[in-house]
Amino acid sequence: MKFSIITIFPDFFSSPLKYGVLSRAIEGGKIKVEIYNLRDFASDLHRSVDDRPFGGGAGMIMKIGPIWEALSAIKTPDSHVILLSAGGKLFSQEKARELSGQGHIVLICGRYEGVDERVAENLVDEEISVGDYVLSGGEPAALIIMDTIARLIPGVIKEESAREESFSEGLLEYPQYTRPRNFRGMKVPEVLFSGDHGKIEEWKKRKALEKTMKNRPELIEKRRKHGADKGS
């Protein structure tokens, strides 16, 4: 899979792409990441990519022209183009699975007060937000999306790890522990030392449900609704 990132801060990605899952995926040839400086596609002497909004308002708006030129040079008929924006649809594990089937994803990192709406209306396949909060720009969101998708590509991480992670079954992941068994009176649940795999699996499922109920109860309702929609 190839990711093409359009940004005004190309150096933002230099360090993150050298570590962890993304680094291993790149080194293993599972993904390829290309970084494009949007200013290279600006037509004026000052390489400007923003301007004042029509109708007034605070801040500056990213112009459609440089983005059009960048996409004209980067995208192919098979490219899937995403604008990263606080006004987009919420990113999820389900969306990550869907996108993991793409061969080429172009990520446009928004900045300033926003992006000319004609970009969302005419130049991209979809608009995505990584959460109900406002970031200074789309660069952190691009890293989140790439990392999440890369983990789903066969061979990037162990299949068992991917299967047991949070959200893989619509629930948060069960609690996990390691040595020491007893740390200042804080003990690891005895069932994990029982050797009874049936009981351990039952405990994991129960604890995953309890943790989800406590921290993300809306996921339980979503899971129930999904089951009802499938007739189960």
Name of the CATH homologous superfamily of the largest domain: SPOUT methyltransferase, trefoil knot domain
- Indicate the CATH class of the largest domain: Alpha Beta
Question: What is the average per-residue confidence, as pLDDT, rounded to a whole number?
Answer: 93
Strand order of the largest sheet: 2-1-6-5-8
Topology:
Blueprint: E1 2-7, H1 20-27, E2 32-37, E3 50-51, E4 61-62, H2 64-74, E5 80-90, H3 93-99, E6 104-109, E7 114-115, H4 117-122, E8 126-129, H5 139-150, H6 159-164, E9 182-183, E10 186-187, H7 197-215, H8 217-229
How does this model look, in words?
There is one protein chain. Helix 7 packs across helix 8. The strands form three sheets. Strands 2-1-6-5-8 form a five-stranded parallel β-sheet, sandwiched between helices. The protein has a three-stranded mixed β-sheet with strand order 3-4-7. The two termini are about 35 Å apart. With about 230 residues, the protein is of the alpha/beta class. It has eight helices and ten strands. The protein folds into two domains: about 150 residues, Alpha/beta knot (3-Layer(aba) Sandwich); about 60 residues, tRNA(m1g37)methyltransferase, domain 2 (Trp Operon Repressor, Chain A, Orthogonal Bundle).
Quick summary of this structure?
The chain is α/β, with parallel strands linked by helices. The chain folds into two domains: 149 residues, Alpha/beta knot, CATH 3.40.1280; 64 residues, tRNA(m1g37)methyltransferase, domain 2 (Trp Operon Repressor, Chain A, Orthogonal Bundle).
